[in-house]
UniProtKB/TrEMBL annotation:
Chief location category: cytoplasm
GO cellular component, as recorded: cytosol
Organism of provenance: Desulfarculus baarsii (strain ATCC 33931 / DSM 2075 / LMG 7858 / VKM B-1802 / 2st14)
Role description: One of several proteins that assist in the late maturation steps of the functional core of the 30S ribosomal subunit. Associates with free 30S ribosomal subunits (but not with 30S subunits that are part of 70S ribosomes or polysomes). Required for efficient processing of 16S rRNA. May interact with the 5'-terminal helix region of 16S rRNA.
UniProt keyword annotations, A-Z: Cytoplasm, Ribosome biogenesis
NCBIfam families documented for this protein: rbfA
One MF term in the entry's GO annotations: ribosomal small subunit binding
SUPFAM superfamilies: Ribosome-binding factor A, RbfA (SSF89919)
Protein location: Cytoplasm
Taxonomic path: Bacteria, Pseudomonadati, Thermodesulfobacteriota, Desulfarculia, Desulfarculales
Protein's name according to its UniProt entry: Ribosome-binding factor A
Length: 132
């Protein structure tokens, strides 16, 4: 199967899953879930559904909720997409947002530390004579 086709099927699955999770799935374990990507295998038998959460500690509950909803989601996808082979869905946590937030925090702290150190170096010690 071509890479273009698997990418296109992945994008279709992503769009449909996002709508289904928003409008049809009522499982509270799946609240606050953001789908980020769908990676479909070349043979279209497997689809990794990447998701992110602001609270990564909820990951086990989300994966359990997704596993419980997977049969319903596959039935709905089969009716909507009408493709010959519908992939088995697997939820995979995408930690890039959490890592990005942590990186932003580190950069912020480094800038604050640099600012404090630069401010300390700019002030001349009182016991040194001026070269005037």
């Amino acid at each position: 199967m071509g890479a273009r086709r698997t990418r296109r099927v992945g994008n279709l699955i992503l769009a449909e899953l996002a709508e289904l999770l928003l409008r049809r799935v009522k499982d509270p374990r799946l609240e606050g879930l953001t789908l980020t990507a769908v990676d479909v295998s070349p043979d279209l038998h497997q689809a990794k559904v990447f998701y992110s959460l602001l609270d990564p500690q909820r990951q086990p509950q989300v994966e359990a909720g997704f596993a419980a909803a997977a049969p319903f989601l596959r039935r709905e996808l089969a009716a909507r997409l009408r493709i010959k082979t519908l992939p088995r869905l697997e939820a995979v946590f995408d930690g890039s947002i959490v890592r990005g937030l942590a990186m932003d925090e580190l950069i912020k702290k480094a800038r604050q530390a640099d600012g404090e150190s630069a401010a300390g170096q700019d002030a001349a010690p009182a016991d040194e004579p001026d070269d005037a």
